[in-house]
Amino acid sequence: MNGSARRSGMGLVLALLVASSIGLTGCWDRQEVNDLALVMGAGLDLSEDNKLELSVQIFVAKQAGDQQGSAGGGSGMSSGTAKEQTTVYTATGDTIADAATKLQELLPRKVFWGHGEVFVFGEQLAKHGITDQTDFLMRHPGPRLGAFVFVSKGKAKDVMARPSQLERNISEGLREMAKSQTGLRVNVKELMQMLKSDAGAEALPLVSINKRNPESNQSPFISGTAVLKDGKMVGQIDEYTTRGIMWLRNSVKESVITFKPAGSNGFVSAHLNRSKVRLIPSIRGDEWSIRVQISSEANLIQNESGLDPLEPRQANRIQEGLNDEVSDRIESALAEAQRKMDADIFGFSDTFRRSYPKQWERVKKNWSEKFPQVRVDVSSDVRLKRPGFSGK
Amino acid sequence: MPMIEKGKISSLQLGLAMYLMIGATSTLIVPAISAKQAKQDMWISPIWGALWGILCIFLAWKLERLYPRSTFVEYSERIVGKVAGKAISFVFLFFLLLVIGSIIREYEEFIILAFLPNTPMAVVVAGIVMASSFAVRSGLEVLVRFAVLFAPLFGLLLAFIFLFLLPDLDWQNVRPVLGYGVMPSIKGAIEPIAWFIEFFAIAFLLPCLRNRKSGLRAGLGAVLAMLATMVLAHLTCLLLFGDLTADLMFPVFSASRFISIADFFSHVESIVATLWLLGGFVQISMWQYALTIGTAQWLKLTDYRPIVFPLGFLVIAFAKWVAPNFQDMLAFFLTTGPVFSLLCLVLIPAALLFIALIRKSFGSGN
């Protein structure tokens, strides 16, 4: 009696296990890799009739497979195929989501955003405003907050269509360039934070196509900074001044600075690393000021100035020149962004809010009037550490 | 009346079970809601919540001291009489149903939003309730072993999210600490408080403790562990997202999606969600256990096993009934939820304790 009851109990458990295998396969959300169109990056433009034009770069897995298959006997296949593993599709719609739906109609596979590492806003769209578009990037479960964001000179579509000579595709190329921090490096999360902050200004890396190279490898690169106010692009800053912005945003990883020390007519180049920047705000009465404290270490990599870096007094002159040069760069960034554009892309507003919350509450509404009046004192402490391999 | 639950648990098992019973959901939505009110002081809000947790542990412990080896359902009858006691217990059991419904719903919304958008809700809910029902049927001793297995994993998971994100964290985001006074952090504590007062659920586990003296210590240990977990989760969100935390639905999950180390260690959210669900499984099972044992005692049954599956079905239904959609679920967490919790988990027990103390001091209690 007892045994049969136990046996029927086991039977019930078995039946439940079998039944659960039907429910647990996840049939509703099954996604096979060979049914997905992996978006590597996307370009967003404003079309001529003021609609949104979405150009996505899609990874072509098929070609990668073919290439392997034909490796033995292919003759004409060998050139180029390794680089051309992506293709660009374009669709137009009222919003990104709408354009993505139209895009889906063009594709035999399901659009998959999870690998989208790069989003490029075209210049026209950036001038028109990007705030509305960023909503998709945060709301849709696919795109990642860690994806990098750029603004392109000209159309983003043209950027996405370019090949990358060294990387698998241009999305990967742009991502690597952002990570190496030769220019600004901004991801979706940071863009959203800038848009939400009281500063009212955003800075994004500006991408343009390198026309100096021969036709075959005119690939896009980061050529400066796009300055936006409340999500609308108001101006751009060149590569030289961008370095100053990066100093102020404490995002300089390493850099090479070339300058003429005072009293000599040759150039000196130094490689800077371990750079750190501190912004120290202070409010005295009505006068708001920020002290920018820079510390960095420099190693010489070229010296045509005739100064002897092994001789302490002359080494000091090189070091002074270094500090002047860094200060100059920061000065030029301030002249552009603070005095000309009145765009707080350095995060001064956050600096003040964190140290003076009460005073900040009173000023934050009129920040765009206060910001140009903020006095900035730069104190640069770059130390010349090593003269390099040459003892001359 | 003999106890229905024959199992005995140790204080460590009790502590870890309580930790997961309350803690597993505390890192899903709570940081976003705290951030809305408390902004950069959001990490302070759980500290206010923990004070309430300590209060609730104390209430449950004191009541069990007065009425040894009995749960809330049993001593409420002995304190205020049979009819009133039954009525209070009924409200409490109904409240438990609602709590389980909302916990399961929260998980379900998270899973469907993040991973299985096309899967019917009933499948996701029934899947976990079936597993937890089997666990409940196996008895408390089995349940707490799950907790001992998964609680350290859950704690480590959050610690690892924090560690892997270290390069991206900006410590400046915590400033100004209390720059706008303590009020924002107290306002932001509504949700942490609503979670911490659930520690009163320890009332259903204390009677099974092998060494009754260690109950208070285990409970307080669980509150502290949960406090550490919540502060860590809040800090992770704050340091990574800053003010943006308030705009995210599941900020800790978004943070885990942000992990990317050396280009190859990234896209780890599936692992994160799996570990999360293991904690969630224990959480749901523990609450379902409290509901089942309470109902069995309320009906004066000699065994609780036969009603596990019927109650499981009811739980599935409640997961659906608790809110028609996501935004109503959020509204429930901010309005009805905390008020109902406060009534059932703090006010009623406090009143019971008050009456019990009076009756004991006049010697009319047995």
UniProtKB/TrEMBL annotation, chain A:
Keyword line: Germination, Lipoprotein, Membrane, Palmitate, Signal
Stretches assigned to the Spore germination protein N-terminal domain: 29-208
Cell compartment(s), UniProt: Membrane
A GO CC term assigned to this protein in UniProt: membrane
Membrane topology qualifier: Lipid-anchor
Gene Ontology BP annotations: spore germination
InterPro entries: GerAC_N, Spore_GerAC-like, Spore_GerAC-like_C, Spore_GerAC_C_sf
UniProt keyword annotation of Lipoprotein present: yes
Domain Spore germination GerAC-like C-terminal, residue spans: 223-388
PROSITE patterns: PROKAR_LIPOPROTEIN
Similarity comment: Belongs to the GerABKC lipoprotein family.
Protein name as catalogued: Ger(X)C family spore germination protein
Source organism of the structure: Cohnella zeiphila
Automatic annotation (TrEMBL), chain B:
Keyword set includes Calcium: no
Keywords: Germination, Membrane, Transmembrane, Transmembrane helix, Transport
GO cellular component: membrane
Top-level taxonomic group: Bacteria
Gene Ontology BP annotations: spore germination
Similarity-based family: Belongs to the amino acid-polyamine-organocation (APC) superfamily. Spore germination protein (SGP) (TC 2.A.3.9) family.
NCBIfam families xref list: 2A0309
Protein name: Endospore germination permease
Organism per entry: Cohnella zeiphila
